[in-house]
């Protein structure tokens, strides 16, 4: 029982019980795991509201894989229906509703990105379900039945709703439906356990209560921490620029992770790797390199990770010609003469030309290891750039090719 509890507990902030008044959630869950005559159904829902998954999203996925390895069934729910509403959790304003085509395209990229994490091959270990299977067919009587299970007061107690209500900001009725629909997912797939971030506790509890309402055995909830970003201050987010995307090339991923703040090293190892915490290097620099190598290996393979490590060292030393895993940018479509700030933007290192100008003025741009801050620097022909490495900050690189 202790060994089971140990792997269950790694990377978990809270295990909350199948019964609201129970005080021994850990032991009750271990008991259900031990006594069940069938694999438990472990639910994780993801709403494909964007194209990329970052390391913060990987935490519940990794816990889902732990359950797979223990013989249980991962039920990965693609929220193609709920994504059209958008989870209001933690949002201070209404979210834009996505089209079906946007959701479908995002869902496919999500599945491609989580393949290195989950077991897609062992029979019975993974179910991929789309919640439009059951939510799109709900009639008005069923929706009214769902609405009757929860009070307005309960909804307003949810973080985000309460803040908007106090400020007098609008809350639309369709947003109240989101927790109920996510909860109904647990009814539809008969989940035994639901995984989610600590910000999902309200929604997971709604699922537990709905299961009880529909005479099903209620689920347990396993909450994982919200990962701090590479800045060590705010939660990992693409919009904040402090993220490591699962889709990034090995060099970019390695370069970001080897600069992880010392204060985050232990939590990153615990949440993002299987490295025993009592075996971490005492030297923070060695720990950073081990973290980067371990995580890149998980997603890109050992050879690519080691190659990225070698190239990262070469780039720091200014040996750009030795770094052959740098992403490439073709100059074939660029109209010359071309200003450097345009190339910084066109290559994808910056979101816009105005941002590229600011980065140049701030001294964040290097060309073949040499800092460049002249916003008017112009290249007459592509030949003078081919083979050179353009660098933004410490982690972003491209090599110019014909």
Automatic annotation (TrEMBL):
A motif ('KMSKS' region) lies at residues 235-239. It holds the Pfam family SYY_C-terminal. PANTHER family: TYROSINE--TRNA LIGASE, TYROSYL-TRNA SYNTHETASE. A motif ('HIGH' region) lies at residues 48-57. Residues 324-398 form the Tyrosine--tRNA ligase SYY-like C-terminal domain. NCBIfam families: tyrS. Keywords: Aminoacyl-tRNA synthetase, ATP-binding, Cytoplasm, Ligase, Nucleotide-binding, Protein biosynthesis, RNA-binding. Its EC number is 6.1.1.1. Transmembrane segments: none annotated. Homodimer. This is Tyrosine--tRNA ligase. Belongs to the class-I aminoacyl-tRNA synthetase family. TyrS type 2 subfamily. ATP binds at residue 238.
């Amino acid at each position: 029982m202790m060994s089971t509890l140990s792997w269950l507990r790694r990377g978990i902030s809270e295990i909350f019980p199948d019964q609201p008044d129970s005080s021994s959630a850990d032991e009750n869950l271990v008991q259900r795991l031990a006594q069940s005559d069938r694999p438990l159904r472990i639910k994780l829902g993801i709403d494909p509201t964007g194209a990329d998954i970052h390391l913060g999203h990987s935490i519940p996925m990794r816990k889902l894989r732990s359950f797979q390895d223990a013989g249980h069934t991962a039920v990965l729910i693609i929220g193609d229906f709920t994504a059209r509403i958008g989870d209001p959790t933690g949002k201070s304003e209404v979210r834009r509703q996505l089209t079906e085509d946007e959701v479908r395209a995002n869902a496919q990229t999500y599945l491609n990105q989580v393949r290195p994490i989950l077991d897609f091959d062992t029979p019975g270990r993974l179910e991929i379900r789309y919640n439009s299977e059951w939510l799109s067919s709900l009639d008005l009587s069923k929706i009214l039945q769902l609405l009757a299970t929860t009070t307005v007061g309960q909804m307003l107690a949810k973080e985000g709703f309460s803040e908007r209500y106090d400020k007098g900001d609008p809350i639309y009725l369709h947003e109240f439906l989101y927790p109920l629909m996510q909860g109904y997912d647990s009814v539809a797939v008969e989940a035994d356990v639901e995984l989610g971030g600590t910000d999902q506790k309200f929604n997971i509890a709604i699922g537990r209560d709905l299961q009880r309402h529909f005479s099903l055995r209620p689920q347990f909830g396993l909450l994982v921490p919200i990962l701090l970003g590479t800045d060590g201050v705010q939660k990992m987010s693409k919009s904040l620029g402090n993220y490591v995307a699962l889709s990034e090339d090995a060099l970019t991923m390695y370069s970001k992770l080897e600069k992880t703040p010392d204060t985050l090293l232990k939590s990153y190892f615990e949440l993002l790797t299987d490295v025993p915490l009592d075996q971490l290097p005492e030297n923070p620099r060695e720990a950073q390199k081990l973290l980067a190598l371990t995580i890149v290996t998980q997603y890109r393979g050992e050879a690519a990770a080691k190659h990225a490590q070698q190239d990262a060292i070469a780039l720091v030393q200014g040996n750009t010609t030795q770094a052959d895993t740098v992403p490439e940018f073709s100059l074939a479509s660029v109209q010359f003469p071309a200003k450097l700030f345009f190339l910084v933007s066109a290559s994808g290192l910056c979101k816009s030309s105005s941002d590229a100008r600011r980065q140049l003025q701030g001294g964040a741009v290097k060309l073949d290891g040499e800092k460049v801050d002249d916003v008017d620097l112009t290249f007459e022909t592509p030949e003078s750039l081919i083979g050179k490495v353009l660098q933004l900050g410490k982690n972003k690189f491209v090599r110019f090719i014909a």
